[in-house]
Amino acid sequence: MNKSMMKEEVTKHLTENIIPFWKALRDDTYGGYYGYMDYNLNVDKTAEKGCILNSRITWFFANAYILLKDETLLDEARHGYEFLRDHCIDKENGGIFWSMTYDGKPLDTTKHTYNQAFCIYALSSYYDASGDEEALKLAKELQLLIESKCTDEVGYLEAFTKDFQPESNEKLSENGVLAEKTMNTLLHVFEAYTEFYRVSHDEEVGERLKWIMDVFADKVYNPKLKRQEVFFDKNYNTIIDLYSYGHDIETAWLMDRGVEVLGDDHYKEKMSPITETLAENVYEVAFDGHSLANECCKGEVNDHRIWWVQAETVIGFLNEYQKHPQKTKFLEASEAEWEFIKEHVIDKRTGSEWFWEVHPDGSPIADRPIVEPWKCPYHNGRMCMEIIRRL
After folding, report:
1. For residue 1, is pLDDT > 80?
2. In 3D, which of 52, 106, 89 has the Cα closest to residue 375?
3. Where are the beta strands (DSSP E) in the chain?
4. How far apart are the C-alpha atoms of 32 and 88, rounded to whole Å?
5. 33-73 per-position pLDDT tens digit
6. What GO molecular function terms would the record report (predicted)?
7. What is the DSSP string of 248-259?
């Protein structure tokens, strides 16, 4: 496959499949977007509306508008933004809730740092798309809130009650552990701050980007194992032997993006060898020539092909090829992964989008929903937009 063909296919998929699918989930009665579609493509219009879901949809439509200049996309982004602003953000205590009822009332009032970050990500992109200063102001308020309420001297804390009393972190802990700090939250605060800095050049946020990169390099990255650690105690000591292939390939390109937006040579020199190693190691350990396994926990590989992991693999490998054009294996891997997605991960049924997960042979794992609080157009939509911009 040549690069122009890949770009053409991805553009068609974005404009003819992903965008129409998410437009169809717009709730014009209660605001935001419907929160659940089961495996059989039944939409539950009374399901909870995840605030992460609605932040990510808002981010998606804002970026799709910036790329494609279709006014209907800006209208969708505005619809998402108004739901975040009017319903999801807590006017009394500050911060964004975890989820809302279908009709826009607080349901799960947990305040999670990860969730605050995704709202900043959405608000920053919406500001870029619309020029609406109110969105940038709200993003700054959330950023200051994260720094004042959700940090200690070591790093970013995780979960809080609605008035920001610490609570346990079930929401971002898995694999039988309860983590006091996570790589995932640190990564997505970094991602959100990168976008906020890109549109605002806020010096305070630029300094925090540098600080987060130092924490990644010194505490999260494991040079001996050539991977990131995932779950930690409060001092960033790892608490489980877990290798998250998807997060490593996602981190590789998101860190490079942050370095590029920041434009600081010292951090380019510090982070580039790490991001290169992450991409190389994922390629060697987890890629089978077609698709990427999920993770390896205590030596046992979970070989399911998860939708978001496949999407991040396409960008991560393409990013590595663009940094080192002599490494053609990464371009070939990116193209092969897109072929796998096209063949097996995209659900061909009318009115659907991507399967949640498939077996290594590409057969879908039934009963996983098509839409739920975590399943949204952020990873696959972003993959399409990154390919269009890069190729």
Report:
1. no
2. 52
3. 49-50, 99-100, 106-108, 111-112, 159-160, 166-167, 181-182, 221-222, 227-228, 231-232, 242-244, 295-297, 300-302, 305-306, 357-358
4. 10
5. 999 999 999 999 999 999 999 999 999 999 999 999 999 99
6. cellobiose epimerase activity
7. HHHHHHHHHHHH
- Domain count along the chain: 1
Tokens of residue 211, six digits: 């600080």
Residue 91: strand, helix, or coil: coil
- pTM of the shown model: 0.98
Structure tokens given for 357: 């997960």
Domain residues for the domain of 243 are 3-390
DSSP secondary structure string for all residues of 62-92: HHHHHHH--HHHHHHHHHHHHHIIIIIB-TT
Q: State yes or no: pLDDT of 2 exceeds 90.
A: no
pLDDT tens-digit series, residues 209-246:
999 999 999 999 999 999 999 999 999 999 999 999 99
Q: How many CB atoms lie within 10 A of CB 161?
A: 12
Question: What CATH code is carried by the domain that includes residue 53?
Answer: 1.50.10.10
